[in-house]
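Tutorial handout. Part one gives the primary structure; part two gives the three-dimensional structure as tokens.
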Amino acid sequence: MIVYFDTSALVKVYVEESDSRQMRIMAENAEDVATSVVTYAEMRAAFARKHRFGSINESILSAVKRDFNLAWPGLRRLAADDATLRRAGDLAEIHNLRGFDAIHLASAEMLQRAAGTVTFACFDAQLVRAATSCGLAPLPLD
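Part two.
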């Protein structure tokens, strides 16, 4: 199984949140874990935000950054090339998405065209609806 993780899903692999266990199991059992290159900056911003708001302490922040940096080279990192960004622009307009969400959707969509069925791991309801309409198989949201 190929799983595309957007940032909302990948953060759960590193920081304890609801559904973290499910995301860790999915990441461990996936044949391939993919994400966009923009995820790196989004993940680091998410970790810093959690620290800033007191959800994680300095020690946990250091550990999750270390773990993520070690795992990053092993992820299938999809380029945010011109074709992806142009498709993301179209998807942003069609589905009323934020920029990075549209990049995630365009990346997963292009991966599915190249590699076959892709499970889209995401915890944003609007992005899940858009992914479904694009033929991706999203995780069920509770």
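Part three, for discussion. The chain is about 60% helix and 15% strand. The two ends are 22 Å apart (CA to CA).
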